[in-house]
Design goal:
By secondary structure, the protein is mostly beta strands. The protein has a single domain, classed as Pectate Lyase C-like. It is about 15% helix and about 50% strand. The chain is built from four helices and 30 strands. The strands form two sheets. Strands 17-19-23-27-24-20 form a six-stranded parallel barrel. A two-stranded antiparallel sheet has the order 1-2. Strand 29 and strand 30 form a beta hairpin.
Length: about 280
């Protein structure tokens, strides 16, 4: 409980959330702490409501703050659903939008040919997100965490990650575009099969044990960012601005550099300030 309170206060201090939103979050924390274990004897199952461990069947309560009701629209042969109060969103052709999560836990979201739009996650956890031929856009993650994320022919755009962390991500033939990562910790991220980072900003980010294979990073800005135990193989790095970037125990193989602006690039204690120097070193 103490860690969640400190996280909320820090987000308020930095202006990520307003004082009113901070008060609402603290109120939610207080209410959640008082809830006790609820048992359903007929089903022989039980769940315990708490700020740090919302089980799957409680996900519907995390959506109670949403102002929309579950609805379905039929347009010819198109079947689209707008979701708000659901347990575990799974299926095709969903539109999941305009939701706000405060100190919540969303688990096992599996969507295909769907859209997640205009959502906010504050001090929340997303555990298990699978997007296939889908789009996540206009969404912000503040002081939140993502775990076990799979993107297949998917796109994340116009989204921000602030003071958040992500682990165990797989990105296959997908695009992350116009996304900002501020003070983010990313671990075990595999970017494969023509996956692309385009027009992204990394500031104060830490990227650990990741794999960039047959992928493209283009038109991106990296400032005060560290790569640790990460491999770059058969990659294209194009139109990048890199300032005070560190590579520790990283592997480079068949990496193509194009139109790079480098300043204070450190690799295992060495410093580079030009594309030519950097290129010669990684080609060794």
């Amino acid at each position: 409980m103490k860690n969640e309170i400190l996280k909320i206060l820090e987000m308020s201090k930095k202006g990520i959330i307003s004082d009113i939103e901070a008060a609402e979050l603290l109120s939610t924390l207080k209410g959640s702490e008082r809830k006790e274990e609820i048992r359903d004897e007929g089903l022989g199952s039980h769940l315990k409501l708490g700020i740090t461990d919302f089980v799957q069947s409680v996900l519907g309560q995390a959506f109670n703050e949403v102002n929309r009701d579950l609805s379905r629209k039929f347009d010819g042969q198109h079947n689209k659903k707008n979701l708000s109060k659901v347990d575990v969103p799974k299926g095709e052709d969903f539109v999941f939008e305009d939701n706000s999560f405060q100190v919540s836990n969303a688990k096992n979201l599996e969507l295909k040919s769907s859209r997640i739009s205009d959502n906010t996650f504050n001090a929340s956890n997303v555990d298990g997100l699978s997007l296939s031929d889908s789009i996540l856009e206009d969404t912000s993650f503040n002081g939140s965490s993502l775990d076990e994320v799979i993107l297949i022919a998917a796109k994340i755009t116009d989204t921000s990650f602030n003071g958040s962390k992500a682990s165990k991500l797989l990105m296959n033939n997908s695009i992350i575009e116009d996304v900002s990562f501020h003070g983010v910790n990313i671990k075990a991220f595999d970017m494969l099969n023509n996956a692309k980072f385009v027009d992204c900003v990394f500031h104060g980010a830490t990227i650990i044990q990741c794999q960039f294979d047959n992928s493209i990073i283009e038109d991106a800005k990296l400032h005060g960012t560290s790569f640790k135990e990460t491999s770059f193989e058969n990659c294209i790095l194009k139109d990048l601005q890199m300032n005070d970037v560190k590579f520790l125990a990283c592997k480079f193989k068949n990496v193509h550099l194009n139109d790079m602006s480098l300043k204070n690039i450190h690799i295992e204690g060495r410093e580079f300030n030009s594309t030519e120097e950097f290129s010669k070193f990684i080609d060794k």
